[in-house]
Amino acid sequence: MTQSVVVQVGQCGNQVGCRFWDLALREHAHVNKRGLYDEALGSFFRNVDLRKSDGGDCCVGGRIQHLKARAVLIDMEEGVVNGILQGPLREVFDSTQLLTDVSGSGNNWAVGHLTYGSAYREAIVNKLRKAAEHCDCLQCFFLIHSMGGGTGSGLGTRVLSLLEEEFPDVCRIVTAMYPSAEDDVITSPYNSVLAMRELTEYADCVLPVENQSLVDIVNKISVMCHGAKPGSVLRKDSTVTSGQGSLSPTEKPFDAMNNIVANLLLNITSSARFEGSLNMDLNEIAMNLVPFPRLHYLVPSLTPLYTLADVNIPTRRLDQIFSDAFSKDHQLIRADPKRSLYLACALMVRGNVQVSDLRRNIERLRPSLPFVSWNQEGWKTGLCSVPPVGHSHSLLALANNTCVKPTFMELRDRFTKLYRKKAHLHHYLDVDGMEQSIFSESLSSLSALIDEYHQLDATKARLIPDAPRLSIAR
């Protein structure tokens, strides 16, 4: 069995990471009734015997002693990490996994990337190496961070480059939280574009998640909760809610949004944690979905979404779940893939679903999904037999689609409005090692990325329907 390490950076990264570990523990508790440390748990947790002087790991198959998350927590402010250490998850982490400072990055990419990145480089590398040494077969690093702040965007992308430098053969999957246009951090367009250059350069896959999409989904769920549809009932005692019935005693403002991202991570890692008839290796995501190295931004879509708000609605039919996965309402980024071009698509299904169900739905949906002419069969599928808690099945779709282009264009426009006036630029240029050329190079990198998507989009007009296949008389 392979193992993965989660690296959570900045306030947002650590809050989302906290929700992931919370939900993962409860998912494993629901499945693992015997209290044994099995390979499923071993993929993301160590089993530590504190009675041993070296705190050594226990072998797979024995009783669960003390579970420790395979994680590294980094933040240049202490608040969120201290909150985790004082909360119900405090036993899941120890001091060797944590790195904090007190002053923060001041919403400045340069401070996070250059100042803290240089000051803490050795400490970060040591913690990453220590986490890797506890793995028998390290397969993937999951990096979680935001794009709008200083620590998440700056130090988060510095950590990404260190991962590429120190572990070049280990897959790097990034979950990046993109700010909305109404973000209260004025410099977020600068931070996001500066971070985009690093993501394009060093990540194997990026799962972009927009704050505004999360807000829209949570609002929609809220409508469901308040009786907009018959039969919608809020279950206060649910095991999947972020408040009552979870490890968290009280609901925090962003818990509902963070739950959505945490469930994305639960689904993408399900094949690594549980058995299935058609398991999808994490390395296969990049191998099958990224035909060009820079075009590795995958649009995530989850169904059912109502897991996250405990809305008791009638179970969706299996075929409807496949249709939902290609609906804009279930995407974690505002885009319209059906009006753009698919380079490839992965479907990761959980629950009692047959391969024949998977193939039937792909054939049903295929005519409405425009794929590039040279990859008409660009589907990657995975079946995990263990469904999410409280549901019969779920589906995560990851689409490599040119529909991300408008999001990147909007980001570039917001960057240009500030940069044209040189507004707030001095805050960055005052940081040791930061030069104005880094701004122009980052803008050029983003524009080149947009052009690559545009060139692919232009081929859509030349797509022709599949020619009828020759029938052989019997």
What does this structure look like?
α1 packs parallel to α3 and α12 (318-325) crosses α13. With 474 residues, this protein is of the alpha/beta class. The protein is built from 16 helices and twelve strands. The radius of gyration is 22 Å and the shape is globular.
Secondary-structure blueprint:
Elements: E1 3-9, H1 10-31, H2 39-42, E2 45-48, E3 66-69, E4 71-75, H3 79-85, E5 98-100, H4 109-119, H5 121-133, E6 138-146, H6 150-166, E7 171-178, H7 188-202, E8 205-210, H8 211-225, H9 255-268, H10 270-273, H11 282-289, E9 299-303, H12 318-325, E10 342-351, H13 355-365, E11 379-384, E12 393-401, H14 405-420, H15 425-429, H16 436-458
Parallel strand pairs: 1-4, 1-6, 4-5, 6-7, 7-8, 10-11
Antiparallel strand pairs: 2-3, 9-12, 10-12
Give the overall average pLDDT: 87
Q: What's the story with the biggest beta sheet?
A: 6 strands, parallel
Distance from N terminus to C terminus (CA atoms, Å) equals 48 Å
Shape: globular
Alpha-beta content class:
alpha/beta
Unreliably modeled segments: 228-249, 307-311
Concise description?
By secondary structure, the protein is α/β, with parallel strands linked by helices. Helices cover 41% and strands 16% of the residues.
